[in-house]
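Readers of this paper often ask what the protein records in our data store actually look like. The remainder of this section carries one protein's record, kept here as part of the documentation.

:::
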Amino acid sequence: MSSFSLPQINDNPDGGWGPSSSSVPAQFKFKDIPYAPYSKSDKLGRFADWNDISGDNRPTNLGLSSTQGRGGGGPGGRRRDGQPAFGSGTASAFTYFHAEDESSFSLVDTKAGAARRGGPMSRGGARGRGGAGYGRGGGAQRGGRGGFSGGRGGGAQRGGRRGWRDWEKNGRTRESSVAISPEWAMLEEIEFHRLAKLRLEVDEPEDLETYGRVYPYDKSYDRITTRTEKPLQLLDRIKYNPTTSDDPVIQEMASRDTATIYTTDVILSVLMTAPRSVYPWDIVVVREGNKLFFDKRDGGPFDTVTVNENAADPPQDPTAVNPNNPNEKVVVPETPSINSATSLSLEATYINQNFAFQTVIETPPPPAIDFSKPNPFYGPDETEPLASCGYRYRVFDLGITDDEDVRICVRTEVDAYLPGQDPRKGRGLVTIRALNEFDSRATGAGGAPDWRTKLDSQRGAVVATEMKNNSCKLAKWTVQSVLAGADALKIGWVSRVNPRDNTRHVVLSTTSTRPADFASQLNVSLANGWGIVRTVADLCMKQPEGKYVLVKDPNKPVLRLYAVPANAFTGEDEDEDAPFDGEDEV
């Protein structure tokens, strides 16, 4: 019978698990090898993966498991199931580092290899994740993420192919809406991304006074189609839009301390939609005591309507090289092009005015309705007939707390009223605007489709394009309608009879919408707009009494507040700065 003997058991005097250090022979002690974490679920991968060597002194995994090396799932030491590999965050003592300097190595042949015809790969590039893309040095394929995308060495960038002379478009610069004098002191600078985070909830306004006369809206224009188009008529009517300081009603209200801030809906809408603006503009701010007056300059950007301001390639004015400075380009003041930015702006202003004049019924029935007081700007010496326009002076409370008294008085405008409603009670008020088409094939059209062929059949696509190209303009119109308390916003679609003639136009259709609903479609936040107004007002109230100007940078999304002399933007100041014409005797 065989005998059985128990093996020797080495007791650990320290009380821990495993043998003691004194009982283990020296040849079995791994003195200089540190502990490397491992997991029982790890599998042995490649012993040496030379494909991971992509630069000098970059570690190459030797003997790592498949979850840590290339054999296992993804980058950053993660498994295919998304969980990190065991011990992936611990430095490995077995990691190999390059001992020799290989910075002198360079690839001589950088020419891309010819693609094979036929087979699973498309021409010039490999199929990537999410669909075909650009291979290295390859051609364009249908992109996975973001539509058409560009890969390494591809000729296109993310978002689409580069167009003709795109490098020159990026270098175009705009001039400021007002000449910045070196004597002006810049007080504040606000980026648009900071303005987009502001928010202030404002309650319903209080109506103070109503002035003017409004005519009923002609509903027959709501039934116009491209097949039953109507020509745009030229009507001689007078419509006033004076600045805040020239308004006698506002001056009277300011003498009674009706509010803290005074402005008009045209000026206020630009400030409330400032983050959407691309073209330059400026607002003159006058502080008198504890009151602020937001004014516009005569002949400034508030008197005209922009066209395709938010397009990827908006219309441009022709430039010429300055003879005194060859590196500087100046805008040519007189241009024969009918599709330049200035010409299109004047054309759009002409269309908006005449479309509003044409779409009202001036001969009863139904009759015109007078507000509580007559037009405050129409003098007794005027002979031309007044346009349909009503002014509503309304006060909004911008106070954050109940004890804070910050109110703004706004002069709002309405263009007509819906038949059967009573505008004197604030019902059925209408604001009328017009979008214009100049030439869908011209530069600056913004990819707009032909209205005559797409407006009836694909109205959604046409509207979406206009909402993209004229985001700022539509947002301002919507804010003006909301401020005036209008029930409807009528937008006409006016096009040229001939794309090469900017003097004759036709009305192709009319869209009617509620201002609040249209604001939601445009993603216009009234609370954000009121937050911008309150922030600008607080910045101006921190300054001493005087005159200031808020300028939108012509090429950057930035607002700047300047302190200007008291005689700036006045007739005396313009006469002093006027150049000598040689007629006066010295």
Residues 52-81, 115-170, 572-586 have pLDDT under 50 and may be disordered.
